[in-house]
Amino acid sequence: MSAPDLDELYQSIILDHYRRPRNFRALPEATGEAAGRNPLCGDELTVWVKVDGDTIDEVTFQGSGCAISRASASLMTAAVKGKTRAEADALFTQVHAMVTGGADAPAPESLGSVRALAGVGRFPMRVKCASLAWHALKAALERPAGAVSTE
Amino acid sequence: MSALAPRGDFPLLAAQPTLCYLDSAATAQKPRAVLDAERAFYETANANPHRGAYAPSAAATDAYAHARRRIARFLGVADADTMLFTRGTTEAMNLLVTGWGRTHVRAGDRIVVTRLEHHANFVPWQQLALAVGAEFAIAELTATQEIDLDDLRAKVTPNTKVIAFGHVSNAVGTINPVAELVAIAHGVGALAVCDGAQGAPHLAVSVDALGVDAYAFSGHKLLGPMGIGGIVVRRSVLERMAPYQFGGDMIEFVGDQATTWHALPHRFEAGTPNAAGAVGLAAACDYLDALGMAQVRVHERALIEAADAALHAVGGVRILGPSESARRSGVVSFMIDGVHPHDAATLLDGAGVCVRAGHHCAQPLMRSLGVAATVRASFYVYSTAEDVARLVAAVRSAQERFAID
Question: Do B372 and A44 touch (CB under 8 A)?
Fold first, then answer.
């Protein structure tokens, strides 16, 4: 791995969200929640959602993990708040394509600050860190409770 | 300090001169002598051992038998036929748990392990306890990840049938007091089972002198090929063990309705053996004995002392395990304040430094430490002071990247 790749992976927005994660709390009034777990490294997080009709009013998370998994979760909560289920689904698909698509994967501008995760594409060993929270979000939106695994 | 073994002896390291390989506790690099021995077996003696009456089969049989004697000698085992080949430590433990545990541990008996164990010496015993209805007790650790012998003694009850413990912790490097553990086990008539996966590669081991009833090991961690290892089992225990796998080579006579078993060690080695792997592992034993296992230990102690001192000087690093190098094998397991172990491993990899970050297949230990993972650097015969310097520089650079602006 070259230094520029590492600079892109650990760009300042990632480090900022790692140190000061947004929406980092439990959500007692949640309508759905899911725990995500990466059995390879022991990272664990829980995502809560409060959905009103078709709109995601609130998303929060808690848990322990590396900079990539925590920053990804934090960026995600900020990105999907106020979105519809369909919009969140579309975002999930785009993020998934971006982090799993290798070095040249598309990182559309419409993703906004979530594009900071594009650097993960060059680090196949870290894809699961970046996608953990997103899988948990998908599960939380689909069912009221339960655990998802990256395995 | 320079390497104990020349880097040029190891083709992978020679081909990648800037690689700083600090994950030997996961698997060791292989000297050319091992690769040559494995290749020579296929080129000069390849046939199925124990099968044919023709010359190459006899050569293969001899090579395999010689390898067993050579490896037994390396491990300080006089009775070579009590050393069974397996794929490695994991299969060795499963062989013992299936062959001995299933017939000797019953409902109401107790199995004792320690909090230090990696999953290969934890899960098989835990599952045995669940299957037969035995009690499963875990001896806890001191603050420096050494077995708390008082806690162990309290948990070793008269109904204890086995105490399973590692010789050396893969996760934090603790060297366990085997003689005391054996005495505690034998005091209640229990078997003393030692997982030597991290002991045999790094310490001068005499299984006979240790007094354990079983000692498992993996070849690939002691410079040998992957897929070969074994377990030494006290003959009196072996003779009361049921076969682990059934098939060719392990039988004496197969009747239509019943079968009798071959003599030791063949009874426990069903199917075509990994003879080439055994030959390669014997060559690894030659290589290590030429270096001298006492020298290997001296070399690794010097490296962990240098790494400990340098990391302490950097600051913001917490090293796990015993602080005295006399009680720790060639492992430096640590946490960097504010840098998650996985981020550390990615950043170190960026600097060409290969370390392991994770739970080290020891989740019960990680839980007790209150962490999900640690960074682990592990040394071996080809490691040098430059490797330590590269590690420390990469740690400092990771700290800088994560420093609060």
Answer: yes
- Are A42 and B350 a contacting pair at CB < 8 A? no
Taking only the tens place, the pLDDT of each residue in B288-317 is 999 999 999 999 999 999 999 999 999 999
Quick: pLDDT tens for B109-167: 999 999 999 999 999 999 999 999 999 999 999 999 999 999 999 999 999 999 999 99
User: Which tens digit of pLDDT belongs to each residue from B166-186?
Assistant: 999 999 999 999 999 999 999
| Of the candidates B144, B141, B114, the residue with the CA atom closest to the CA atom of residue B320 | B144
Burial B26-43 (b: 16+ CB within 10 A, else e): bebbbbebbbebbebbee
Chain A positions touching B357 (Cβ under 8 A) are 41
- Provide the shortest C-alpha distance from residue B351 to chain A (in Å): 8
Which positions in chain A have a beta carbon within 8 angstroms of at least one beta carbon in chain B? Answer: 1-3, 5-6, 9-10, 12, 15, 19, 40-44, 64-68, 123, 125-126, 129
Chosen from A41, A68, A70, A125 to mutate, greatest number of chain B CBs within 10 A: A41
Can you tell me the mean pLDDT for B74-93? 98
Q: pLDDT > 90: what percent of chain A?
A: 66
Q: What per-residue confidence (pLDDT) applies to A147? A: 47
Identity of the amino acid at A149: S
Condensed to tens digits (0 to 9), the pLDDT of residues A83-102 reads: 999 999 999 999 999 998 87
Pick the CATH number of B7-28+292-404 from 3.40.50.2000, 3.40.50.1110, 3.40.720.10, 3.90.1150.10: 3.90.1150.10
Indicate yes or no: CB of A6 within 8 angstroms of CB of B342.
Answer: no
Q: Dihedrals φ, ψ of B400, to 5°? A: -65, -40
Residues 6 or more apart whose Cβ sits within 8 Å of residue B251? B259, B260, B261, B262
Q: Which domains does chain A have, with CATH numbers?
A: 3-149 (3.90.1010.10)
- pLDDT higher than 90, residue B358: no
Pick the closest to residue B369 from B319, B328, B331 (CA basis): B319
**CB-based burial of residue B252 (10 Å sphere; 0-12 exposed, 13-18 middle, 19+ buried)?**
exposed
ipTM of predicted complex:
0.88
CATH topology of domain B34-289: Aspartate Aminotransferase; domain 2 (3.40.640)
Vertex B111 angle, CA B176 and B126, to 5°: 95
What global pTM score does this model have?
A: 0.92
The question of whether B354 is a catalytic residue gets the answer: no
Kindly list the domain boundaries of chain B, sorted by start residue. Answer: 7-28+292-404, 34-289
| Topology alike, domains B7-28+292-404 and B34-289 | no
- Token code pair at residue B379: 């040394």
Q: How far apart are CA A118 and CA A19, in angstroms?
A: 19
